[in-house]
Amino acid sequence: MNKTLLFCSLIFFFACSEETQEIEEIPMETFRDEVKATPVKVGVSQKKSFDYLINASGKIEAENEVMSIVERSGYLIDLKVEEGQQVKEGQIIALLDRTDSQLEWDKAQVGLRTASAEYRSLKIVSTVETTFSEDLDRNARDEFWKASSGLLAAEIAVREAENNLNKTEVKAPITGAIADLKLKKGSLVNAGDEICLVLSTGLLEMKVKVLESDIGYVKKGHKAEIYPVTGASESISGTVISINPKVDENGLVQVTLKLSKGGSLLPGMNARAVIRAPQNNNLVVPKEAVVYRSGRPVVFTIDNNEAIWNYIEVGKDNGREIEVLDGLEADQTVIVSNNVQLGHQASVEITTE
């Protein structure tokens, strides 16, 4: 009985040993083949022109804004505009009482006629002039008669009277919109009083502050998109027209953008600008291709249907693409989806879905 049990135990022991040996001899590749490949989308690393995007904020300003002022004293008898109204250059926006100015002009006209009569009289009497030396020409004699008759002074007085009469009409200095209306009809005004501000709302510009570390990328003529802070999705295009050659105490440089149109933007409105600074012949990858492991940027390439881990050094980021300074070469296939949890040499399958 004991021999039988011993024999059975030996048979069981050797059978288990053989099964264990067979399991240990299964190659690791068999398990890798059983793991389902991760579906991934891919892109390509490229040498290309790269738009570095510089974000800045500032205020919208009118390209031209001129204060309209009163040039003579008097009563403001009519105000022909209201705030927000569009006016053209030279359009009358206010009228002053012209009674005194008209009287001055009438007096000047009388003086001119009197002086003209005296001038003609002198000219007739001096037909045979003996007081002039023979070397004086006709023009010199004519100027002498005009001065002697008071005609020159009378002509100047008429021009002054006409100028004062014209000042009773206050005209728009530029084409634009009326803002900051300060006076009311019937007011007694003095020379130099401000009536309103005229803004060229159709010609707008924006002054933004750019970090000194980014200003080297910005050049005159670079394009920009301007977005109002009101949240409007449609942007308005702009162009860099000037760069202040001075860095302020906060390490910022003022850049002026000229807007292509006004759109919904108004002077004084806050807005955000995105300046496009082209960078030539840079190696870039789609932004989705870059993941971070332990704080370091990584891009996965593909080799024989396996994901290959590549540490890279990144440069500028424009929101769609990232510049690669080191770690990749041009025209490599890079993984742009399902790459957050990928491991080195993980099995992958390229898909377009």
TrEMBL record:
InterPro entries, per the entry: MdtA-like_BSH, RND_pump_MFP, YknX-like_C
Single GO molecular function: efflux transmembrane transporter activity
Entry GO terms, CC: efflux pump complex
Highest taxon of the lineage: Bacteria
All residue ranges annotated as the Multidrug resistance protein MdtA-like barrel-sandwich hybrid domain in the record: 73-199
Domain YknX-like C-terminal permuted SH3-like as annotated: residue spans: 283-343
Alphabetized Pfam families for the sequence: BSH_RND (PF25917), YknX_C (PF25989)
Similarity comment: family membership: Belongs to the membrane fusion protein (MFP) (TC 8.A.1) family.
Protein name: RND transporter
The species this protein was found in: Cyclobacterium qasimii
